[in-house]
């Protein structure tokens, strides 16, 4: 073990421990603040990509150009598929953590110290176009599938293992591992005739859940114990899907049905996985399908005026083209649910969804809420 790396990480983690570990029982109840977590590690697709795809040489699934980032600090397009910060950023802010940097931004000798620091507070491994299956990103170009994201996590895990074993174990057990993935696998299923020939929706979505289980077990084996698993939303209600219905712009219910089937398979898989791991894994499943349904059904309640159109785009529902520099941009991003034709949420929508994750009401979360998860 390299002794020159140990003091920095050890002191840094001990400092975080004083601030964030359960040194003061009952602090949440006494102050009304969230119980905190020492690190946030994010896996997923473009819904939470913080710029990993910027570092891929041939990927066209990037968002490192305007109007993306128009509401990010300094109006910077960072590679987030959003006008500002995404849901992973909002979660980090809720727990008082730095925004988890994209893993691929931490490579190289000049990034060594930044990599050490991020290894402790959190890293974002998500990639636009990524899926549970390795083949999902073939249509758009180059992405980082979930299995490779987990490989990248194991690289960061090596940094943490330079700590004393007991310190590393505590850190990993208290950190939050967030997984937001599955939409691209479903888009892939509807976009490829051969996939629909090979398996029925029920079979395909079960395969998705089984494949995800393999990767969750790999993360768990590295010492992770707390998981936030976010279900697939109503991909049939994205502006792009609605615009294909040329008359009344209703949702694509066939696509939505597959989302429901996958979420059902996901819930069953998580229950089985927890049993297999004999309770060493704790998790909260957030029903993103229901949350989006409720926002679309009663937008005014959540502060939105438009839940069908894209804020950035062109044509019908502003959804005929992607959010490109010459696209039409809505004037008030806080009133739009969707940022672009693909259904990426605006920053306002992402923050609304994260607020629903953190509500004490178990309406959207099971078997426990996110607040309960981080307080255990």
UniProtKB/TrEMBL annotation:
One Gene Ontology term of the molecular function aspect: lipase activity
PROSITE patterns from the UniProt entry: LIPASE_GDSL_SER
One Gene Ontology biological process: lipid catabolic process
Keyword Lyase: no
Protein name from the UniProt record: GDSL lipase/esterase
Pfam annotation, one family: Lipase_GDSL
Matching PANTHER family: ANTHER-SPECIFIC PROLINE-RICH PROTEIN APG (PTHR45648:SF106), GDSL LIPASE/ACYLHYDROLASE FAMILY PROTEIN (AFU_ORTHOLOGUE AFUA_4G14700) (PTHR45648)
Coiled-coil ranges (or none): none
Keywords, ordered alphabetically: Hydrolase, Lipid degradation, Lipid metabolism, Signal
InterPro entries: GDSL (IPR001087), GDSL_Est/Lipase (IPR051058), Lipase_GDSL_AS (IPR008265), SGNH_plant_lipase-like (IPR035669)
Signal peptide: 1-21
């Amino acid at each position: 073990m390299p002794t020159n790396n140990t003091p920095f990480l050890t002191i840094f983690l001990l400092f975080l421990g004083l601030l964030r570990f359960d040194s003061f029982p009952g602090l949440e109840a006494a102050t009304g603040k969230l119980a905190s977590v020492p690190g946030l590690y994010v896996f997923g697709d473009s819904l939470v990509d913080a710029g990993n795809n910027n570092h891929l040489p041939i990927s066209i699934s990037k968002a490192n150009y305007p109007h993306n980032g128009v509401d990010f600090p300094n109006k910077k397009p960072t590679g987030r598929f959003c006008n500002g910060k995404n849901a992973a950023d909002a979660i980090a802010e809720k727990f008082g953590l730095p925004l988890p940097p994209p893993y691929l931004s931490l490579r190289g000798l000049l990034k060594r110290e930044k990599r050490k620091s991020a290894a402790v507070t959190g890293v974002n491994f998500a990639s636009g176009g990524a899926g549970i299956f390795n083949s999902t990103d073939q249509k758009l170009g180059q992405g980082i599938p979930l299995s490779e994201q987990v490989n990248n996590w194991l690289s960061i895990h090596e940094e943490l293992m330079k700590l004393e074993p007991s310190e590393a174990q505590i850190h990993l057990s208290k950190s939050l591992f967030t997984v937001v993935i599955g939409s691209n696998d479903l888009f892939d299923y509807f976009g490829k005739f051969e996939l629909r020939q090979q398996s029925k929706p029920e079979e395909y979505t079960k395969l998705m859940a089984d494949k995800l289980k393999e990767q969750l077990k790999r993360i768990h084996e590295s010492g992770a114990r707390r998981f936030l698993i976010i279900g697939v939303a109503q991909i049939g209600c994205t502006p792009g899907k609605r615009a294909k219905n040329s008359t009344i712009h209703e949702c694509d219910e066939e696509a939505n049905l597959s989302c429901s089937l996958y979420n059902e398979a996901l819930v069953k898989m998580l229950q089985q996985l927890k049993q297999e791991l004999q309770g060493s894994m704790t998790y909260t499943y957030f029903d993103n399908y229901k949350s989006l349904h409720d926002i679309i059904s009663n937008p005014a309640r959540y502060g939105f005026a438009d839940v069908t159109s894209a804020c950035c785009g062109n044509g019908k529902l502003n959804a005929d083209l992607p959010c490109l520099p010459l696209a039409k941009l809505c004037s008030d991003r806080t009133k739009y649910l969707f940022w672009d034709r693909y259904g990426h949420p605006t920053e306002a929508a992402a923050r609304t969804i994260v607020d629903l994750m953190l509500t004490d009401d178990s309406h959207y979360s099971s078997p426990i809420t996110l607040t309960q998860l981080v307080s255990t």
